[in-house]
Amino acid sequence: MKKVLRLLISLFLICVILVCILPFVYMILMSLKSTINVYDFRFALDELSLQQYKKIFANPSFVRYFINSVFVAIAGVFLTLFTSCTAGYAFAKLKFKGNDKIFLCLILTMLVPSEVILVPLYIVVRGLGWVNTFKALILPLPTAFGVFIMRQAILAIPDELIESAKIDGASSMKILWSVILPLVKSAMLTLSIFTFIGAWNNFTWPLIITTKDALRTLPLALTTLKAQYDVDVGLTMACATVTFLPPFIFYLILQSKFEAGVALSGMKS
Amino acid sequence: MKKKKGLSVLVPYAYITPISLILLTFVAGSLIIAICFSFTKYNIITPAQFNGLYNYQKLLRDDKLRVCIMNTLKLTVIIVPLQLFTSTLFAVLIASRQNTFLGKLTKAALFIPVLSSSAVVGTVWKTILNGGHPAVRAVFGIFGIDPTMLLGSSESAIVTVACIIVWKSMGYYMIITLSSLMSIPDNYYEAAKVDGANSWNQLTRITLPLLKPTLIMNAFLATVSSMQIFDMVYTMTGGGPSMSTTTMVMYAYQLTFKGSKAGYAMTVSNVLMLMVLIIVLFQQRFMRRDASEI
User: Fold this and answer.
1) Interface confidence (ipTM) of the complex
2) In B, residues 54-83, which contact A (CB 8 Å cutoff)?
3) Where are the domains of chain A?
4) Would you give the DSSP letter of residue A85?
5) Within 13 Å, how many C-alpha atoms sit on residue B168's CB side?
6) B291 at the A interface (CB within 8 A)?
7) Mind giving me the DSSP string for B36-105?
8) What is the CATH code of the structural domain delimited by B63-293?
9) Which one of A52, A104, A114, B1 is separated from A222 by 20 to 30 angstroms, measured CA to CA?
10) Is the model's pLDDT at B42 over the cut of 80?
11) Which of residues 48-67 of A touch B (CB under 8 A)?
12) Residue B58: partners with Cβ closer than 8 Å, 6 or more residues away
């Protein structure tokens, strides 16, 4: 009886795995079919081709989208690391008037639902004259969550280390750079991955704030380039695969960091 | 102790200036704009004109808004329980196999949809359901469903969208639940075993009660995110058929960019903001009461 139950659970888990990955398998298989036989559903390995990928990477708009995505995500990671590490350090280790109160105010901004303020955010950025600029795509990326993560990590560093560096005459910038940051690399990595994937996958904000091919990012290719590609499923699926792969590869390499990050993001509330 | 130099007092403020400026401009700025512009007639291009409470009165007469609120609530009511049930079930099952290959694989597989862009998920599912592939038809045929009708008919579209959203994010809630499951000390279960409790008893008497705070938190996280759905709907149905999947965020988007009614769009956003705020306040009280019980 117990063995039967165990077997049933195993079967169930296998079904769960299939339900999770089959749509992506479908995506990849369809992307490897040439246009001619995309509606020919017989499956044969020798008919697979990289033709669709050659086609999308031959399209200058698509290449532009791809480069924009890489640039925005990487710039977003650096900006987030910079703002979060500096503020996290100040809130964790420096004494100044209003420390707790300012921190609480920043944390409260996490309660503001991000999609709800989409339209007003657009008006703000428009008012700054930043529509169709990289500034508009990158600057809103850092959040108070990053400050929270870095503050938590830096709080765990013993004060003695900082005091002894101070006695050696190190400035606070030097302490941050050469004493603190090397000790919080793990938190920085978690934050970087989350920021990268968030920026890479972001769909709504680039959709609203960009109207030119020169600034659009990859997820938009799936909806905007579709008009050009008509209804060519193979091409759409190749676009989807290219958008899907970078986060997926990161996940394969750094699985534990992802789980740590999710557990943290649950903890914040 | 030597006295601090005048300037060095300002150093900490310099460290917090970058993030404060960003959040002040984009978050606080948006909130202020949302409130101010909700009292105006504004089409983005010409300057805003103050029109008092007109937009707020319009809310009451707006039949489309009523449809969108209903759609948003429907999505929330379908998603939250389903999300909670699936993620908890998978977390418990994975925890019981955590060191086996199958357990690890399930955990990894559940996370793949989480890390994919909603644009990818939306487009792929739409292609699968509408593509008419014989294998897809055969799978859905087992349940007597025609896959092309799922997103195509106004009765089933919202349920389909809700299910796909659950599919995308169940791994996220599973990881949160699993990490709190792992923090339950083993000796609780050992003691229960000594007392002769079977695994069902262990689940209902130990695991679930201790998971309660996490489950409550997951429920609220899922509620707040279900109320703000936009991208998945945009990529899968565009709000259709016949407005059956238009959410409140999507309505605000359409008002601003398709209807040149940005002022009214912000009034709609404020209604949603108020709804979310009520839920967040409710959560705070709920969690505090729950914490005091333990």
Assistant:
1) 0.87
2) none
3) 29-267
4) H
5) 25
6) no
7) HHTTEE--SSSPPEE-TTHHHHHHHH-HHHHHHHHHHHHHHHHHHHHHHHHHHHHHHHHHHTTTSHHHHH
8) 1.10.3720.10
9) A114
10) yes
11) none
12) B264, B267
